[in-house]
Amino acid sequence: MTDKVIRTISKHQMISRDSVVGIGLSGGADSICLAHILMINRENLGIKSLKAIHIHHGIRGEEADRDLDFCKDFCEKYGIDFISYKADVPAEAQKTGESIEECARRIRYELFEKLECDVVATAHNLNDNIETFIFNLSRGASLSGLCGIPYVRDIYIRPLLDCTREEIEKYIEKNGLNFVTDSTNLSDDYTRNKIRHNILPQLFQLNPSFDKAFAKCMDSLVNSRDYVLSNATELVEKSRNDGYYDCSVFENEHEALKTQIVSLILKENNAKNISREHINGVLNLIEKGGSVDVAGNVTVNIEHKKMFFGKLVKTENFELAFDLETENIEAPWGKYGVEVFSKKDLQIINKQDIDKFIDCDKISTNVVIRNRRDGDFYQMPKRPNKSLKKLFNEKKVEGHRRGEMLILSDDNGIVWTEFFGVSSRCKIDKETKKYIKISKVGKNNV
Description:
Layout: H1 2-11, E1 19-24, H2 29-40, H3 42-45, E2 47-56, H4 62-78, E3 81-86, H5 89-96, H6 100-113, E4 119-121, H7 126-138, H8 143-146, E5 152-153, E6 156-157, H9 165-174, H10 191-206, H11 210-239, E7 245-246, H12 255-268, H13 276-288, E8 290-294, E9 298-303, E10 306-309, E11 319-321, E12 328-331, E13 334-342, E14 357-359, E15 368-370, E16 377-378, E17 386-387, H14 388-395, H15 399-402, E18 407-410, E19 413-417, E20 421-422, E21 434-440
Parallel strand pairs: 1-2, 1-4, 2-3, 4-6
Antiparallel strand pairs: 5-6, 7-10, 8-9, 9-10, 11-15, 12-13, 13-21, 14-21, 15-18, 16-17, 18-19, 19-20
């Protein structure tokens, strides 16, 4: 069994040389086995020091006190640094509304995070993974959920994940190790215990080698998950844009891939407890557009295949007087700079940029900088006069950006717009003597 554990550690690169390794030590057979293997192989694994962490959950009274004393004595015997914490899990669970299991797990990992360890090893084994699989299956988990407990997650490693509970018990007996039994593991009051005591025995009756069959199945699931995840990650990167995700990049992909892509995007934007219903809600918006709240804490908006996040706030009307001495413009949504050019600069203008320049002599009176108004019309060079609303629809400009478009106008109408450039009447030509360019500071003009 030791060789199997060493192979697992090596295969998944769990421990680097000179690492400080923490061990979640409950005193049960699994964690005692893990601590013993890491202790006797510490030099071979390059472990700088071992720290055993025991958490008294405040649940089992004298029995929990016994476990604390046992773990302390075990660590003293084998020269392992010992750290213990006490928590009142029942009181905390009542306060938060969590189950005892959920609350205890959260507190454990919060305390693990505070340790000065390079990695923290937990004693999850193959049987634990089977139980996790069945639990997640019963809740309608996705492919990722069915892949069970990961070998490595952040600072957490699971060196025993390829080992069965039977192998662990044989290791304990062979090495003459003592351990304690948590009485709550004998009760069916907890979901995992119901699975362990009632469902697993039936599965092993169907196939005495069920654990080995499960391990093969898990390898297949993990490989499929990793393949989908790799492709999804690549497509998320391709869809990423300035402030939004371009859904047209992945909208025609397979459903399994789109599901993973949306899940990754939601996680990037701090959505919690993502369900299949949340993902389906977002997928439905890709075709028709609209908004949906995900997991109660994130709003997803999709317009013209562009996905962006956050509550939409209507932009208030904004207007400032403008003259040719203006150098900087501060709009509620950003800053803009004004550059002034003379006739001699016309020779070096790139023809592709010509629509960005405004002929000063063609501007009329009462010049203002503002955002759009209902009824605005604009004439692009060599194009008929059109309402901004029609132009926005043609160019698929998202609704939330329409109120944040800078406009230069005079008594005769729009002179220049941030999204579409200069109007045909104020375009520079060979007679131009003085002209200006307005650009957003820090970003390219659209």
